[in-house]
Amino acid sequence: MSALLSLTGVHTHIGRYHILQGVDLGVAEGRTTMLLGRNGAGKTTTLRTIMGLWPASSGSITLGTERIEAKTTPEIASRGIGYVPETMAVFSDLTVKENLILAARNGPLDDAQLVWIFQFFPALKKFWLSRAGTLSGGQKQMLSIARAIVEPRQLLLIDEPTKGLAPAIVMALIDCLAEIKRRGATILLVEQNFRVAQQLGDDVAVMDNGRIVHRGAMAELAENTTLQERFLGLSLEAHQ
After folding, report:
1. Where does the pLDDT of residue 240 fall: very low under 50, low under 70, confident under 90, or very high at 90 and above?
2. What pTM did the predictor assign?
């Protein structure tokens, strides 16, 4: 299966810190790849490097057949990449409606797409004319994801979407991401909740100390507690 996104030998330095130390990663087209690892392994840095927010010091990043590691963040986003950072990227002083209008760069809001988004995130319809800054944390996360999917993207990069959210909101996010996946989207998803990773992932890459240390099928990792404990520090009790 062909890779839509490929990282080869990618190094990233932030100040004097050498964060990514030769990352090799492929994201297969039409599949959801989970990027897992302990805190500080380099997962967020990987997503930010792909987006050009932290430039790669060396190595190559290829989207389709195009090298993008030297491009600016707006240029990369214009290639059809949607990015949902863990910091919930919304414009607090703008309304929910205005946030989505800005995200729909290729034209007016698509009514059918909005109906679909409201199906999963009814709070966004309820607070349509409210300032995003007044939303709860979970609602801001919903809006952040809605901004990334309000128009078609060839690739979605999503960083810990369920972090710190109530279980009911987590379930809504899982349902939404599962439907995006069923529609054939290509997703690279960082997620600390292993149960969520099991539900959504087709493929998995595990990071440690700025490198990919394991690649394979998500189902294989989900069934192998030895690998889980070795690469993620999980135990049987963590799944109960």
Report:
1. very low
2. 0.91
